[in-house]
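Much of our argument rests on the idea that a fold can be written as discrete symbols. Part of our work consisted of pairing the sequence of a single chain with a tokenised description of its backbone. No coordinates are needed to read the tokens, only the vocabulary itself. The record that follows shows the chain in one-letter code together with its fold in token form.
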Amino acid sequence: MFQIQIEGTTQHFSCAPDDTVLRAALRAGIGFPYECNVGSCGNCKFELIEGELQNTWNEAPGLSEKDRTKNRWLGCQSQPCGNARIKLREMAHYQPVHPPIKTPARFISKREITHDLHEFSFECESPLTFSSGQYALIHFAGVAGPRAYSMSQEGGSGTRIDFQVRLIPGGSGTNKLFTMPVGESVQIDGPFGMAYLREDAPRDILLVGGGSGLAPMISLARGALALKTPPFKNIHFIYGARESRDICGLDMLNELPLWKTLGHYTSVVSNAPADEVLPEGTQRGFVHEVVQTLHGQALSNMEIYFAGPALMAQAMIKLLVDQKVPMSQVHFDQFY
């Protein structure tokens, strides 16, 4: 184990040679800013003051050439070669609710949700504790780098972990997952993510998902409706799909005891032929447009969670900023 010292503080933490600086810091309870955890967003940048590190992904898009000239590194892609000293703006907001752990896991089953979206279940050697809405990293044998997938069950602690994942054409991670034989071993590392359920928020909840963003939204709905005394009166679930065959989620919600009392589901299709008769209650257009139409100014009085394709996330952020929704009420993770 190597020691990583945070410049200007008495803070330090241990990091194994095969761990990353970011994840080791989170395991130690340190508020290391991050989002995607896989090298894309750049939110986990820090400056190396002393010591030697190695990159696990030299071409990570989250790090620019300018960053490299200033000796900046990505926490999620940096591994220590010895003791080091780093400059980091620690933030209490990022202190983990549940420090992440690594555990071997075994693939036990899968079920089809849609033609290209399946749920995958793993049995972990060690119990994983997480909050509804969080995600974990899966390390596959033969695949370079981990993949980030959200848990789909209610938060808690246990050895069984479920993920809902959409097949990405040409994607090495999802292709591995969709063809994995029962019994194959992986390593799961988690939990991560800041878009977890705020159990004491008194506002109505809005959950907006698209694609694999179904998983964290289902997890959040399951967690919210399992609360002994829900602090909200309504929970709105809006799911965006490209085609009618991609619509999903309502069957899982209908299984929840309080859903029919507190829940409201809307599906949205963006690419359906004009002459197609859509399922009852399905709207045409883009998710953010339907969110605006259905909720408009009421958004500022909601606790809002969303997950989905990058363009959907960007449109949602713009809408919520335009509606002057306090960012403390908006929760999302940038890795979709």
Observations:
- The mean pLDDT is 96.
